[in-house]
């Protein structure tokens, strides 16, 4: 496996306070990754560190296997594109903003027209190339800032809370842009968010931060109860779990590993529950279902599955999942 970043013994201090403490963190290349955590968890600090705009107080890290030092910083930044949570656009047109970014990156002038056109096409702003950046809507500003960040074709794109303060249409547009950029060979996209469902439905991997430290990601379908052999009793449901030597008080089921059906399935899956659909929501072109089976289960499916199953709130559904889809801790 190749890594976009490898961090060792990293600490970042603000005065006497340690605001980021990462003994070890490897971030794989070629993935779409979310930095997840509440406000103040350290997401922006880590993102600024990855963008080389913040230097660690101690520790070391590599970017694409190249050790970071103050003298290599400028060269390494050419591999990066970074968009702040509230990006500042310069006076002038959208095209002017992208041209200036390319100039600052040292891009050969003869290549810039094609690079500007490509960046505008990737974010769907070709028709607004000559429009004043000051007149753009919030969603258009985000897309213009991304066009500016990717014009020099960086391998790594870093986005700080890219979906904040956007309407539904702008969120969908931005999701498509991010997914498309991440799908290109050798591209890595890392964005910060406080939305767990968004992170889970959109990304390949999630890095969860809590008070500046790595922590286990909060889980959907988290249940407390007691274990007897390979059965976990929540008090409302009995769920078959992987066999193991240790007792567990908590379990969690991956919402992507739950199969829904209108009739009971006859399969090797050990867990089958009849429930009632109580919520249908959409996030990042992924459908989020909440099903009451005595306990509430969260399930993620595709829009195509929603349509083919002809689901609606109030209908009965069967949920099925394997015992090894259950995490015990």
Task: Please give a quick description of this structure.
With about 325 residues, the chain is of the alpha+beta class.
As a percent range, the share of strand residues is 25-35%
Query: How many individual domains?
Result: 2
Radius of gyration: 23 Å
Output the CATH class name of the largest domain: Alpha Beta
What features would you describe in this structure?
With 329 residues, the chain is of the alpha+beta class. It has two domains: 3-214, Rossmann fold, CATH 3.40.50; 222-328, RNA polymerase II/Efflux pump adaptor protein, barrel-sandwich hybrid domain (OB fold (Dihydrolipoamide Acetyltransferase, E2P), Beta Barrel), CATH 2.40.50. 25% of the residues lie in helices and 34% in strands. The protein contains eight helices and 21 strands. It has helices at 43-50, 73-77, 94-104, 109-123, 138-150, 168-183, 196-202, 303-309; strands at 3-14, 17-28, 32-36, 58-63, 66-67, 80-83, 156-159, 188-193, 205-210, 213-214, 222-224, 226-228, 231-233, 238-240, 250-253, 259-261, 271-283, 286-292, 296-301, 316-321, 326-328. It has a six-stranded mixed sheet, with helices on both faces. The chain has a five-stranded antiparallel sheet with strand order 16-20-17-18-19. The longest helix is centred in the middle third of the chain and has 16 residues, at 168-183.
Secondary structure topology:
Blueprint: E1 3-14, E2 17-28, E3 32-36, H1 43-50, E4 58-63, E5 66-67, H2 73-77, E6 80-83, H3 94-104, H4 109-123, H5 138-150, E7 156-159, H6 168-183, E8 188-193, H7 196-202, E9 205-210, E10 213-214, E11 222-224, E12 226-228, E13 231-233, E14 238-240, E15 250-253, E16 259-261, E17 271-283, E18 286-292, E19 296-301, H8 303-309, E20 316-321, E21 326-328
Parallel strand pairs: 3-8, 3-9, 6-7, 7-8
Antiparallel strand pairs: 1-2, 1-4, 4-5, 9-10, 11-15, 12-13, 13-14, 15-21, 16-20, 17-18, 17-20, 18-19
Helix pairs in contact: 3-4, 3-5, 4-5, 5-6
């Amino acid at each position: 496996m190749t890594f976009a970043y490898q961090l060792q013994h990293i600490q970042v201090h603000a005065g006497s306070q340690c605001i980021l403490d990462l003994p070890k963190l490897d971030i794989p290349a070629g993935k779409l990754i979310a930095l997840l955590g509440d406000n103040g968890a350290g997401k922006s600090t880590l993102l600024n560190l990855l963008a080389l705009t913040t230097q660690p107080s101690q520790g070391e890290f590599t970017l694409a296997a190249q050790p970071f030092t103050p003298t290599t910083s400028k060269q390494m930044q050419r591999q990066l594109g970074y968009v702040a949570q509230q990006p500042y656009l310069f006076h002038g047109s959208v095209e002017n903003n992208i041209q200036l970014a390319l100039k600052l990156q040292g891009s050969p002038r003869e290549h810039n027209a094609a690079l500007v056109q490509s960046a505008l096409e990737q974010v769907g702003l070709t028709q607004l190339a000559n429009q004043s950046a000051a007149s753009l809507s919030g969603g258009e500003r985000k897309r213009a800032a991304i066009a500016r960040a990717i014009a020099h074709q960086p391998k790594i794109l870093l986005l700080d809370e890219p979906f904040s303060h956007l309407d539904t249409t702008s969120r969908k547009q931005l999701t498509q842009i991010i997914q498309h950029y991440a799908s290109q060979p050798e591209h890595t996209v890392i964005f910060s968010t406080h939305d767990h469902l968004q992170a889970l439905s959109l990304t390949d991997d999630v890095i969860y931060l809590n008070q500046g430290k790595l922590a286990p990601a909060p889980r959907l379908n988290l249940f407390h109860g007691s274990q007897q052999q390979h059965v976990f009793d929540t008090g409302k449901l009995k769920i078959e779990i992987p066999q193991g030597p240790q007792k567990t008080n908590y379990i969690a089921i991956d919402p992507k590993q739950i199969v829904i059906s209108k009739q009971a399935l006859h399969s090797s899956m050990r867990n089958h529950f009849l429930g009632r659909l109580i919520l249908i929501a959409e996030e990042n072109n992924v459908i989020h279902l909440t099903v009451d089976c005595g306990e509430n289960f969260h399930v993620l499916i595709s829009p195509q599955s929603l349509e083919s199953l002809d689901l609606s709130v109030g209908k009965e559904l069967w949920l099925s999942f394997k015992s090894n889809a259950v995490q015990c801790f």
